[in-house]
Amino acid sequence: MRAESLSEIIGTLYDCVLEPQRWNATLPLISAAGESTASSIVVQDRGGGGCVFEHGADQSFLRLYFEKLATSQVATARPLAFNHVGDVATMTMIAGEREVQNSDFYVKWVKPLGFRDVIGVFVLKSGRRVGWFSLARSDVQSRYDDRDLRALGLLFPHVCRALLISDALDLQTIASARLEETVDGLSTGIFLTEGEHGRITYMNSSAEQLLAGGALANRNGRLTAATAGARDALSRALAASASGTAPPESGRHAVALPGPEGGGLVANVLPLSWRDGRNPLSALRGGTAVIVQDPAVPAVLPLDAFAELYGLTATEARVLDHLARGRTPQDAADVLGVGLTTVKTHLQKLFAKTGTNRQTELLQLLARSTPPLRAD
């Protein structure tokens, strides 16, 4: 294999990391450099499915064989390791030195495809996926010799590394996308920032909406507050969090963010690695989380789940719904079209079923059961 060919192929291998479809153009280059008639990359998800990139003749038999070889479901002429990244299996290794073309492997798996020799390389093994790379020569070509293996051995580590990087990037992308989708469903605003000046690296949908309210602002890509006092308090909290420090008990700085016309927001600033180096939002970029809640915007009450948890009847749940919305027992009676005594009877049953004694305790219990999710 010429050095120029090796260099070109290695370059295209790493192009395949970001664009897997480029394997379709890369495999013919590898086949030509290895004087082979066919080549393939097989990546198999452990839970089922996967992808195959193939050049040359159909290699379905070989894919099945190497899959069985990796899981020790086929016998070889001598003990053969093929379960660690970088392991190589040649036809001689599988069938033995003598009478290779009379071997069970050649007769059943190689010859029907019109091949004379094959090489398999175990190129990927992760928590989610395994992968194989193979090369094959036709029955009119010579078998692979030691010189061929040495030349191809310069390429195999790069194939392994490209697949490893691709798998890692794919997992990180999937994790980031799923986390972002989940965080976007929160009624709480989530900002992630970097540096002591609060450069915004991520914000969920609720955070974007909160920026329009006036208490918070995005100035030149940095998170800041509207009023001078809040601006200073938020700046100090962001600077402390960026340095990895936090209040020892709570782990967060609580900052009031008054609005320009009254009301406002409450922000909690949390350094993401302040405790044990763990970052619960590690799939998203940022060193500091700013978690912002608008006290005037209620979260969606989980009444159905709460009623199921405590065995409430439909009428008891409706009474609780009205009380949770700030109505008095008399208001609830008027809306439901029943007497105040009936509502009070339902309220006593609610106390008994939830283990509370007063209306405030009941509503506090419901509030603690309410996840910070946005209404659709």
Features:
single chain, 376 residues, alpha+beta, Beta-Lactamase, Arc Repressor Mutant, subunit A, 3 domains, 5-stranded antiparallel beta sheet, 12 strands, 20% strand
Instruction: Characterize the main sheet.
Output: 5 strands, antiparallel
Q: Low-confidence parts, pLDDT < 50 over ≥5 residues?
A: none
The third-level CATH topology of the largest domain is Beta-Lactamase
CATH class of the largest domain: Alpha Beta
Rounded to the nearest angstrom, the radius of gyration is 32 Å
* Total helical elements: 14
The SS-based structural class is: alpha+beta
The residue-averaged pLDDT reads 80
How many β-strand stretches? 12
Query: Helix coverage percent of residues?
Result: 40-55%
**Structural domains: how many:** 3
Give a brief outline of the structure:
The protein is an alpha+beta fold. It contains 14 helices and 12 strands. A hairpin with a 3-residue loop joins strand 4 (115-125) and strand 5.
Description:
- This protein has 376 residues and is of the alpha+beta class.
- It has three domains: 3-172, 2-Layer Sandwich (Beta-Lactamase), CATH 3.30.450.40; 186-293, Beta-Lactamase (2-Layer Sandwich), CATH 3.30.450; 303-368, Winged helix-like DNA-binding domain superfamily/Winged helix DNA-binding domain (Arc Repressor Mutant, subunit A).
- The protein has 14 helices and twelve strands.
- It has helices spanning 3-18, 23-33, 60-70, 91-95, 104-110, 146-153, 156-184, 205-211, 228-242, 303-310, 314-324, 329-336, 340-354, 359-368, and strands at residues 38-45, 50-55, 88-90, 115-125, 129-138, 189-194, 199-203, 216-219, 222-225, 253-258, 264-271, 288-293.
- The strands form three sheets. A five-stranded antiparallel beta sheet has the order 2-1-5-4-3, with helices on both faces.
- Helix 1 (3-18) runs antiparallel to helix 2 and helix 1 packs parallel to helix 7.
- The longest helix has 29 residues, at 156-184.
- The chain is elongated, with a radius of gyration of 32 Å.
- The two termini are 60 Å apart.
